[in-house]
TrEMBL record:
Name of the protein in question: Prepilin-type N-terminal cleavage/methylation domain-containing protein
Chain segments annotated as transmembrane: 7-27
UniProt source species: Ferrimonas sediminicola
Domain of life: Bacteria
Pfam short name (any one): N_methyl
NCBIfam families: IV_pilin_GFxxxE
Keyword Ribosomal protein: no
């Protein structure tokens, strides 16, 4: 009797079916890589902006203006911070403007869309990857946006309590 060599037709069909099932099961994970990449990019922008804010706060503290709104002030400690890092801080943080964020966080305009908030959203900057539609009224609960919402530091007019800058990554629409 001869020894059998190779696979039978049934074994070959079973292997193909098993590979097909594995491919269908694994495909959604690999299809979702673009979402993961966009989310990671937004988190990178958030980290860059947080690092920039730490630098701005340190420069403001050294010059004694960490509790001041330096908007439009070009004298004293505010001017010293501006000459050093090209930003006039607001309560020790980067203002929520495209110019200020680009200057200190080194976020390239070729890769990002910057939308400054208006009216009820004043003091916010919406940072969106270039290939994604910006939603300048999105909130952290908005599931179909893909952006970083940066809110500059502010001070309550009555209590004079300063609220630090905040960063929200909205990734539902990535």
């Amino acid at each position: 009797m001869k020894a059998q060599r190779g696979f039978t037709l049934i074994e070959l069909v079973i292997v193909i079916i098993v590979l097909g099932i594995l491919a269908v099961t694994a495909a959604p994970k690999f299809i979702d890589l673009q979402t993961d990449a966009r989310t990671a990019t937004l988190n990178g922008a958030k980290g860059s902006l947080q690092g920039a804010n730490a630098l701005v706060y340190a420069k403001a503290a050294v010059n004694g203006v960490e509790g001041d709104d330096c908007t439009g002030v070009t004298t004293g400690g505010c001017n010293a911070v501006n000459e050093d890092i090209s930003v006039l801080p607001i309560y020790g943080a980067v203002p929520a403007t495209e110019t200020a964020v680009k200057a200190v966080a080194e976020l390239d305009g070729a890769e990002w869309t910057f939308t400054e908030g208006a009216d009820a959203n004043a003091g916010k900057l919406y940072v969106t990857p270039k290939n994604v539609t910006a939603k300048p009224t999105a909130t952290d609960a908005d599931d179909d946006a893909c952006q970083l919402i940066y809110t500059q530091a502010s001070q309550d007019a009555t209590t004079k309590v300063v609220t630090p800058a905040s960063y929200i990554v909205v990734k539902g629409g990535c």
